[in-house]
Amino acid sequence: MKDATAQTIYLKDYQVPEFLIDKTHLVFDLNDEFCRVRSSLSIRRNPESQSSSSPLFLHGGAELELQKIEIDSAVISETDYQRTAEGLIIDQAPDNCVINIEVLIKPHLNTTMMGLYKSRTMYCTQCEAEGFRNITFYLDRPDVMSEFTTKIIADKQQFPILLSNGNPIDQGDIENGRHFATWHDPFKKPAYLFALVAGDLSVVEDSFTTCTNRNILLQIFVEEKDLNKCDHAMLSLKNSMRWDEQTYGREYDLDRFMIVAVDDFNMGAMENKGLNIFNTSAVLANPKTTTDAAFQRVEGIVAHEYFHNWSGNRVTCRDWFQLSLKEGFTVYRDSQFSADMNSPVVKRIEDVVYLRTHQFAEDAGPMSHPVQPDAYMEINNFYTLTVYEKGAEVVGMIHSLLGDEKFRQGSDLYFSRHDGQAVTIEEFVGAMEEVSGQDLKQFRRWYKQSGTPVIDVTSHYDPEAKTYNLTFEQSCPATPGQSQKKPFVIPIKFGLVGADGRDLPLNNQGDQSMVFSLYETSQTLVFENLQQPPVPSLLRGFSAPVKLNYNYSSDQLAHLMANDSDGFNRWDAGQKLSLQVLNKLIEDAKAERELVMDQQLIKVFKSLLSDHSLDPAMVNLMLQLPSEAQLHEQAEIIYVEAIHRARQFARQSIATALEQQLASTYQRLTETQDYAPEANQIGRRALRNCVLGYLMKVKTVGPELAWQQFNNASNMTDKAAALSALVNCETAQNYATQALKAFEQDYCDETLAMNLWLQVQATSQLPEGLERVQALMEHSAFNINNPNKARSLLGAFCSANPINFHNKEGSGYEFLQQQIIALNALNPQVAARLVTPLTRWKKLPEPNCQLMRDALQQIANHKGLVKDIQEIVTKSL
Ligand SMILES: [Zn+2]
Fold it and tell me: Which residue is catalytic, options 128, 223, 305, 633?
């Protein structure tokens, strides 16, 4: 059957399911060329449904080879049902019955990685959002929750390990060297949380005792060669389990918790009940092959998926428009966890950089949508930064409006009231409203209105009256389908910093920091008895996901950088100062004027490097100039070359002026302890590698240091940083060639390290980037079928190497267009993600603007385009 023409699905059309499935029995008979799937579904008509006579509709993809249908043990004939592009219609289904269905599927031919598929030698599944319908006919929607029993039959030698959700209840050998295992999950769940794994896997085991003294078996299944890379994930899992008990009062419910690592996976990981399936990149970690950033990613993702056991599984989504109910809340929970495990300020800054760079760009582009979208063509396109990251910010704002105690009461009420249910975002906000007594009616606009709000702040000091006024005005740019916006409720945490660097009291109680709720278009705050005009410290801790403008002088910013009691705002003042400097340089570069470096920024950086009492992690973050991607986001029109030149010039000037301080910082931070992925060491390594990056701009010094570091590094963080520094340095190409070769020899058997090797080259800013990427596509380390590799090479080049991707000939765009067409047939989800850079064509000047549009048009014209790509391309054009 053909792909259905892409239809738009609307939230307003939601209806309760007409039928329910109380119990689901599945038998998977795995064979080399096919898998026989037998299902037995206890179905009944939903008493809450309005329609009492509608036929039974079951979702099912075109690839299902239907063998047999029985209703209450009687085989029904082909005239009793109808096959459509979307599934199966059974006209005369009784109100209460057991339906048995048998289908054949071919997992070894499934390249989409949705449903049941093969990754290397193992079988695994991915069912969120709508993959279960590629396995068998079913009511594949999250509000149909069922109790699953799953039997897996396979060859014992090839597939000694057979796993599914819940607890094992039976296993044994059968004829022909085959065996079986049966699993039962006592918790009702929607089909998207179903999972199955069959493979030749090794296991690392541990245990966890819960707060009520139950002993839980913890298992991480990997290929044997990866057994030495599981410790960090296991530790992170145990930390997550304890943290969720202590912070949210959530205890684990099954007797065992399993994680399986697979190489071919479209996303990071999946929270299937009791059986999480992870991309190897999100679970494996070892100092020799894994960077600090990847260690922290493992910790964050293990926590995220574990936390879903409550925020997602025990309480799930009614429909996919509620995706942020589980994702926004769970991202918020995992960021709280990571903050507690490491440094809260550093974590906050990293999250905000990510949000500002990528989510703000999404919110300003053609795919802009609210945290709760009201329509979609392909739900896979809505696993977005807006639903996840902005959704988490919205939960964070509820937390700061309610305070710790009420927020926890609200989450307790939400979990207890809706345990075992599929609910909506409204239920979550409602619980928060109920416990706090606060009216969150206007606040709900955060879920419904898209776009990044802008706050313009002005101040006025009256020297006679000694009063100081702060006026806040909010607005929000028009976004697709939403030309007019109503005011948001925006919690703005702020303080006033005096000339001596100390916070001034804001009221009679002497508060030095407070949260002000901006809910009208314009509001003014008045402060009395101020002897001098203060410097306002606004949006402390980034208390809302907005763009805030205040006309700071560079002296004021330097004052905040040195004195603000809020760590986030100390950093942000530095970012604002850097942005002022860079924006001036970009203007000059555009006009081809001589570039002159601002001395104030150099002075500030010098004092940062000279003060050894500062936290290296913070110094590192403060020395980072806003990335090119961030400069693109905040630009009206993206002048790629001018932005690149200006930023490189600033880096060069800083390096030249501060060579001595940089070099001594590099030496001072030489690590003497054994490697550990803990916050202090990570901070020192980050600063040292940041300093190395600057030193690469100083002829001979940098390349020599990087080459030494590459050869002597005891861990992948330092090795990869040195490699990247060499690869990006024009005068170090001799070393770069040798280093790339040595790396390849040492790590050719380490898939994840080789992905890093691809990525480092894909993001090299030196000329002829496209040619390098094309050559690497022929390398044995690359394989377009593997999502990690496609992202490491193609994704990294197109989204993180602007100077090469946006070349004037448009060959970067043409290349991306070809790759998307190639992936269209293989893996729609990966293809759809790759399109993003082209969708920003409106922000590029000519000729790039037209060339990008042409590339998008070519994609649109392609016959047989999957709806994932169709939706994005249509909206962009
Ligand atoms: Zn999630």
Answer: 305
